[in-house]
Amino acid sequence: MLSSALTASVLVSPPVWARPSPGRRHIAVAASPPVEQAVRTEDTEPLTKEDLVAYLASGCKPRHDWRIGTEHEKFAFNVETLRPINYGQVCDLLNGVADTFGWQRVFEGNNIIGLKKGLQNISLEAGGQIELSGAPLETLHQTCAEVHSHLYQVKAVGEKMGIGFLGLGFQPKWDLNDIPMMPKARYEIFQNYMPKVGSFGLDVMFRTCTVQANLDFSSEQDMIMKFRASLALQPIAAAIFANSPFKDGKLNGLHSFRSHLYTDMDSDRTGMLPFVFKNSFGFERYVDYALNVPMYFVYRNKKHIDCTGMSFRDFMAGKLPQVPGERPTLTDWEYHLGTIYPEVRLKRYLEMRGVDGGSCNTLCALPAFWVGLLYDDESLCTITDMVADWTDEEREMLRRKVPVSGLHTTFRGGYVRDLAKIVVKLAKEGLQRRGYKEVGFLKEVDEIIRTGVTPAERLANLYKTKWRHNVDPVFHEFAY
């Protein structure tokens, strides 16, 4: 049966996909807050599409259980040479944090690939970027405290090793060939497949960093409203927080080069998902979409098996050539959902994924922006009405033009900056009504909107003036 969190939502009676199939022992899935590992029991019966839909629906939870999850990546670099750190240094860094601050080590084979402490995880991205997946927290004050605690810990260990940390959307100085690949099996699979389906996949893997906010929903209808609002506004957020103006030691001519890369990475698993805005959208429609996204791998016997381009539907029928006769578990479904990269991603919560890595203030401001808009009914309804008549073509235009022109992008006779003013005002009002005194986390965003100068433009101005066309100072002046 489904979790109590789902049955306590506004879904009064179970829809078809929530009812156990006759004569079949149903799979129980416990709802969990953002970024918490799924709790599940799995039987020997083959998964059905109903099970996959029910898995997503099990994320529904009442408002008092809504939480805020954040994920943020950073570049680790050698303070002396400014080069990315190698895997040996990564090992020393992770072991140092584990020993000093009591984290549990996570291994793949004999290689340390991350750390875990309670519901927090520190993980390792393909090019050595260090990511914190934060615990599900109740207030933005807790989120900001978590950010500061994490940065304090990695800096305390890193400083002794000559390692610094930088929050930008794209590696500002080093070429793709200068970035070491971390020893995680899935990255080798990605590296071989991505050049076959897009121009920028390897750059996304090895040279980008992002900040992400993960938020809950109470019901299928609530999920739909939040998905549509956040997806439509993702380019607006990308414009406000644009922070990747450099490439290979020079200006790249864009505001958010990281966002631009996603326009030609892999069209099967990225984009603005026009079907989300159709009347037929819901949990089942997202499952249909995910089933159509080609697979990357299957994890069996502690090994990643390359299944690139294969169909999850064939896997469900036991017809995957790489693992003949094998059928997927909900863990496989989880893995598959995590290899889809649209601007907003649905798991058992919603992930807002469209923003460049940034300063410590950004790490607190980005979740504040989305909490103010999506966790307040009045703000959410206003946004929903505002974007209701935007067309697929307009949303795609914003996705493609905002990385180039940022807040100066034209839209319906005005500019994205005009939209951003409205949206930030709604976010502040939403935070005010929450009653936790969280509006102050949008102070930096207020300044960006007031001046019209994004982080990317500020960096570009410094590069042209104070830094005399040398990108190296960014590693010193903007390191955490």
List the helices and strands and how they pair.
Elements: H1 4-7, E1 29-30, E2 39-40, H2 49-57, E3 68-78, H3 87-101, E4 104-108, E5 111-117, E6 120-124, E7 130-133, H4 140-161, E8 163-166, H5 185-193, H6 201-207, E9 210-215, H7 220-240, E10 246-247, E11 250-251, H8 257-261, H9 283-292, E12 297-300, E13 303-306, H10 312-316, H11 330-337, E14 344-346, E15 350-356, H12 360-374, H13 377-387, H14 392-405, E16 410-411, E17 414-415, H15 416-434, H16 443-451, H17 455-464, H18 473-477
Antiparallel strand pairs: 1-2, 3-7, 3-8, 3-9, 4-5, 5-6, 6-7, 9-15, 10-11, 12-13, 14-15, 16-17
Keywords: ATP-binding, Chloroplast, Disulfide bond, Glutathione biosynthesis, Ligase, Nucleotide-binding, Plastid, Signal, Transit peptide
Protein name: Glutamate--cysteine ligase
GO biological process, one term: glutathione biosynthetic process
Describe the structure.
Its EC number is 6.3.2.2. Homodimer or monomer when oxidized or reduced, respectively. It holds the Pfam family GCS2. Residues 1-18 form the signal peptide. InterPro entries: GCL_bact_plant, GCS2, Gln_synth/guanido_kin_cat_dom, Glut_cys_lig_pln_type. The chain is α+β, with helices and mostly antiparallel strands. It has a single domain, classed as Creatine Kinase, Chain A, domain 2, CATH 3.30.590. 41% of the residues lie in helices and 15% in strands. It has helices spanning 4-7, 49-57, 87-101, 140-161, 185-193, 201-207, 220-240, 257-261, 283-292, 312-316, 330-337, 360-374, 377-387, 392-405, 416-434, 443-451, 455-464, 473-477; strands at residues 29-30, 39-40, 68-78, 104-108, 111-117, 120-124, 130-133, 163-166, 210-215, 246-247, 250-251, 297-300, 303-306, 344-346, 350-356, 410-411, 414-415. The strands form five sheets. Strands 3, 4, 5, 6, 7, 8, 9, 14 and 15 form a nine-stranded antiparallel beta sheet that branches. The protein has a two-stranded antiparallel ribbon with strand order 1-2. Strands 10-11 form a two-stranded antiparallel sheet. β12 and β13 form a beta hairpin. α12 (360-374) crosses α15. The longest helix has 22 residues, at 140-161. The radius of gyration is 22 Å and the shape is globular. The protein starts with a helix and ends with a helix. Residues 1-42 have low confidence and may be disordered.
